[in-house]
């Protein structure tokens, strides 16, 4: 239950932080972190649904949510990692504020 709340709060926090950034690199970087938080929320929701109902249908939903959550986490991590490298590279070159 705590993972639900923490992950959805992080998701909303990162989505709101995107509005504060004017630089598209920071926007994509923050969006990657938001996707990771969303993936954790979806995966934990699926696990909780199976733990609560423990039926065959709940198992199907759990597996589906784990796949969708895992896909969000993997994609978010790739976006986060890529744009983190770009931001570091531009900061070292002095081209980024």
TrEMBL record:
<feature type="transmembrane region" description="Helical">
    <location>
        <begin position="34"/>
        <end position="51"/>
    </location>
</feature>
<dbReference type="GO" id="GO:0006508">
    <property type="term" value="P:proteolysis"/>
</dbReference>
<keyword id="KW-0812">Transmembrane</keyword>
<keyword id="KW-0472">Membrane</keyword>
<dbReference type="InterPro" id="IPR025618">
    <property type="entry name" value="YtpI"/>
</dbReference>
<dbReference type="Pfam" id="PF14007">
    <property type="entry name" value="YtpI"/>
</dbReference>
<protein>
    <submittedName>
        <fullName>Abi (CAAX) family protease</fullName>
    </submittedName>
</protein>
<feature type="transmembrane region" description="Helical">
    <location>
        <begin position="57"/>
        <end position="80"/>
    </location>
</feature>
<keyword id="KW-0645">Protease</keyword>
<keyword id="KW-1133">Transmembrane helix</keyword>
<dbReference type="GO" id="GO:0008233">
    <property type="term" value="F:peptidase activity"/>
</dbReference>
<keyword id="KW-0378">Hydrolase</keyword>
